[in-house]
Amino acid sequence: MKQSVEKGKTLLVDGPACIKLCSGAMRAFGAQIKIGEHIIVRVGKRIPFEATEDSQIEMLLGNSASFLLIDEDPIPQSWKEAVSTMLSSNKGAETIMVLGGIDSGKTSFCNYLANTALSLGRSVSLIDGDLGQSDVGPPGTVGLSIIKKPIVDPFNLKPDHVIFIGVTSPYTAVKSIIESLVDLKAKAIDLGSNFVIINTDGWVEGAGAVEYKLNLIRMVKPDFIVAIQGNSELKPIIGSLSGLEEVLIIDVPKNIKKRDRETRKIIRESSYKKYLKDGKIRSYPLSWITVDGNLELKGRNDQFLKKRLEEIVGNKIIYCENMGSQIILVLKRESTLSDEENAKLNAEFKKPIRILREGDERGLLVSLEDNEGRFLGIGTICSVDYDRSVLKVYTNVNGPASRVHVGRIRLDEKGNEVEVIARSQ
Fold it and tell me: Which domain holds residue 48?
């Protein structure tokens, strides 16, 4: 369908939709839309198309898509003032950290800030620290992208560096996230960025969230903190700062899109599928790679240890390995251990015994890395062949990998999220 948009009006489009500018002039988050350009609006996303001239667009709307014509500027005045303040400072290489709750407009603000900085000749990079709704890199990761041209949706950016965390919520991975964001900031500066934007997750309420964000600020040392606040949800964080940090408080946009848990899951699943596209099942001998994270294996099935274990639990074991700090014990698929058997094992070995069942590994999301620890891509575990000591992974990573880091996210064969394991099983 075709839609006319008068100069000064804004078309809000909720995906899934495809928009093509036929005539006139429009922009989204400060990025100029070219005539004939197709803009995809993803499921669960809202993009404001602001007409700077009388314009005509063509829209293809999918199921549940919608649009609304509004007679106002989609960029709040407080956003413009904050961006002006940051871009007029003379601090040299600058780091901006953006804080806000869930669906507060953090990504939209980062887009607008990046586009404006880019238009003024800054060397801009975007670091995405939101594990669950990551745009730069797949879910369960933090990512860095050097911005070369204006962006409408950062999902289309090519990551320059990705660090795999392996969960979708920050609660159990605070230390890893902080260390990773510090690392990515250093990489951005090494790559020549003088304007580093760090988007954070929406966990801001509660004592744990406050401590996490304060530690993140202390370690990253941003030059500016942008706080997107609707009511007073960020007050405990802002009120606990040392006072040396420069904090800019801005408004949550009036027309922000709120997403329920299911929609956020759908967005994650589309990202898994993007990063697993054209994958194949590849086999990695355990003796050639390091397997760590939520599953640790070296491929050394200890027959002497297995015999000792079988004296206690019987013919239930298909694999066992002494890892030094713990014993890995893999049972046949339907086998279980009684309380008495568990007690005997603990009394006999005096070290932690991690009990797995054949097939527990299936569907777990992994990161494949090279011998220098660089992220190559993601995959999902198909199986472990314990007899041949081979790990089978579905991935689009070509060539060798030196490390397979196993996360706690489990996907089905279609790339849909089945569960996120709260802790090692």
Answer: 2-70
